[in-house]
């Protein structure tokens, strides 16, 4: 009886082990299948997360490259790096056109620079507009300088007027400490830069105006005896020299306190 | 069958004093994880696709991580360390450079290679985590933030650019002009004379008293080559009347008087930016700047002159709160808080650009010798 029952018992144990192994394999397959589907199901989320992280990290990289290239006068390189910021331009969207515009300004491509900075102004919010307005005004001022250098004083005066409009519309908040912290040029006081630009624009516009109609206005504003024709010529020459000097000075400030030297 | 059932029953009751019964072979229904652990203690990934016997064998013959994976882990750690050191040293440009990028690719390749080897998976995973946390993008981003906060964008300047950066003059302006024109000290003296005359005559004629506003300000001017020049933007201290001036005729008379005084001091006649009859500023801009395009209702009058070819620019402003709105009032309040100047009344200031201090003249000339014919 005992010997009869031993063989079926061994068979039964073997069958149990086999069944257990099969169950294990089946459960493992099931787990693998579940894992695979979880992986597939979360793939879009994973890709989105990777894209998000990649975008954030690339923002720093492109911005840094744009600035570094600008500092060493590599305006084409700066512009190319700034274009890298345009891809999925969701965060601080004004920075891409701002940096492109500033790089273009460095390369003296003024109309293109102006277009980009105007785009940046539309995208800027709050205190972001302060630094955009300063650079935009400087670019328009340079357009005026270029027009004057080409002998078109009327166009120059018009550009100076447009630039003056840009600075005069700068919000009062731009004079705050918070605005200064966001300045693209932390080594200079933003309010001072704005005031300097405004003063310079007024003077340039006035000079162009006086050159347009020098004989009509002088008698009214100067109570002293009427100057002779020779004196008027001398005055006019002085004014022209003054204009040239200021133009030179403005050019000299490319990279200077009132120049568009830093695209960030 | 009777015996088998008996044996099975014995399994559940034998030796169970004080202890729970052991699970049946194959485990309880639905308890798959416990079951597999019971049958095969080997790690789950290792059992996939193998029989129970094979997994048990694998568990018994657990091998150490490969030498390759250890090397990969060391390389990943070393590279992360190098990145952090470069970041601390302020080498953002180096971090974003081609060399670091190429090295990063090599590290990533090694980590991937370690991950696909059976005995390198564990250390490869650790190396992967290190690489994901510390790579050229993450550490470069941190370094870029540090550079941005410090404003130290030196870039990769050539020796020539570094030489230009130290230029003491200003780009496109003949440095001789700075030497020939009034110095800071001469501007200060000329402005003091001018202010004294204006104060005396305005007081004599209109009875206003004066107070000094703020201190003089010397701001270095940039040289246009990425550095600072030895020249300054110089603003004198200001002077302001202590009483407000609201009457239009008085304002006109004061500006006329100042106009005569500045001409006596060798400057051009005053030019009123705020006056539409002589200013070319657009009326809308004039309204933004001065509150109105009509001098009768403007909150600010701003007149200016200069003494070209010398650098002095003289400003005479009249602030009138009676013509201003709340915004103007708050602006003046802010200015008063900042400089202590009166809220309204006449104010005078002189500004001169690109001027040299007498004390710097010798050093300026000496420095210019390093830049023959350069500007």
TrEMBL record, chain A:
Record region (Disordered): 167-264
Transmembrane domains' residue ranges: 37-62
Protein name: Tetratricopeptide repeat-containing protein
Keyword Transmembrane helix carried by entry: yes
Gene3D superfamilies noted in UniProt: Tetratricopeptide repeat domain
Organism: Microbacterium hydrocarbonoxydans
Domain of life, per lineage: Bacteria
InterPro entries: TPR-like_helical_dom_sf
Residue ranges, compositional bias (Gly residues): 255-264
């Amino acid at each position: 009886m005992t010997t009869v029952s031993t063989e079926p018992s061994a068979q039964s144990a073997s069958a149990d082990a086999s069944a257990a192994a099969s169950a294990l394999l089946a459960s493992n397959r099931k787990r693998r299948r579940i894992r695979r589907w979880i992986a597939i199901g979360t793939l879009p989320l994973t890709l989105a997360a990777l894209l998000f992280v990649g975008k954030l990290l690339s923002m720093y990289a492109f911005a840094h490259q744009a600035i570094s290239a600008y500092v060493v006068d590599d305006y084409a390189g700066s512009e190319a790096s700034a274009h890298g910021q345009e891809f999925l331009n969701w965060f601080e969207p004004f920075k891409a056109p701002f940096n492109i515009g500033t790089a273009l300004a460095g390369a003296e491509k003024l109309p293109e620079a102006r277009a980009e900075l105007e785009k940046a102004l539309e995208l800027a919010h709050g205190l972001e507009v302060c630094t955009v307005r300063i650079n935009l005004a400087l670019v328009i001022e340079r357009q005026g300088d270029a027009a004057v250098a080409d002998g078109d004083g009327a166009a120059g005066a018009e550009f100076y007027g447009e630039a003056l409009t840009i600075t005069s519309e700068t919000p009062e908040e731009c004079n705050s400490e918070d605005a200064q912290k966001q300045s693209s040029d932390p080594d200079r006081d933003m309010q001072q830069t704005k005031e300097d630009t405004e003063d310079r624009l007024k003077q340039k516009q006035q000079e162009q105006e006086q050159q347009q109609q020098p004989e009509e206005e002088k008698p009214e504003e100067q109570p002293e005896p009427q100057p002779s024709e020779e004196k008027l010529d001398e005055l006019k020459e002085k004014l022209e020299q003054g204009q040239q000097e200021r133009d030179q000075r403005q050019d000299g400030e490319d990279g200077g306190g009132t120049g568009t030297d830093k695209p960030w | 069958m009777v015996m088998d059932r008996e044996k099975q029953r014995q399994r559940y009751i034998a030796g169970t004093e004080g202890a729970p019964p052991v699970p049946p072979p194959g485990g309880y229904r639905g308890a798959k994880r416990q079951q597999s652990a019971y049958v095969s203690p080997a790690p789950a990934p290792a059992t996939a696709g193998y029989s129970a016997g094979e997994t048990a064998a694998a568990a018994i013959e657990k091998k150490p991580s490969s030498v390759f994976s250890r090397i990969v882990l060391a390389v990943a750690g070393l590279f992360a360390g190098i990145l952090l050191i470069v970041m601390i040293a302020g080498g953002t440009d180096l971090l974003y450079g081609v060399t670091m990028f190429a090295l990063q690719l090599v590290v990533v390749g090694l980590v991937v290679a370690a991950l696909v080897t059976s005995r390198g998976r564990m250390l490869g995973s650790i190396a992967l985590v290190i690489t994901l946390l510390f790579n050229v993008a993450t550490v470069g981003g941190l370094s870029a933030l540090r550079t941005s906060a410090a404003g130290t964008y030196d870039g990769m300047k050539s020796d020539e650019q570094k030489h230009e950066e130290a230029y003491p003059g200003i780009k496109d302006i003949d440095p001789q002009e700075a030497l020939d024109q009034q110095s800071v000290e001469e501007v200060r003296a000329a402005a003091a004379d001018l202010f004294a005359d204006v104060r005396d005559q305005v007081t004599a004629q209109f009875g206003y008293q004066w107070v000094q506003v703020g201190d003089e300000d010397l701001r270095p001017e940039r040289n246009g080559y990425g550095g600072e020049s030895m020249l300054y933007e110089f603003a004198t201290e200001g002077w302001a009347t202590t009483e407000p001036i609201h009457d239009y005729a008085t304002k006109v008379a004061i500006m006329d008087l100042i106009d005569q005084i500045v001409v006596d001091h060798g400057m051009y006649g005053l030019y009123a930016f705020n006056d539409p009859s002589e200013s070319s500023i657009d009326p809308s801009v004039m309204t933004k700047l001065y509150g109105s395009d009509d001098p009768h209702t403007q909150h600010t009058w701003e007149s200016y002159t200069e003494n070209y070819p010398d650098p002095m620019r003289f400003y005479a402003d009249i602030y009138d709160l009676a013509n201003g709105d709340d915004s103007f009032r708050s602006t003046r309040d802010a200015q008063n808080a900042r400089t202590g100047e009166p809220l309204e009344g006449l104010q005078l200031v002189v500004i001169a650009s690109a001027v040299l201090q007498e004390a710097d003249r010798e050093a300026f000339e000496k420095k210019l010798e390093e830049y023959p014919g350069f500007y």
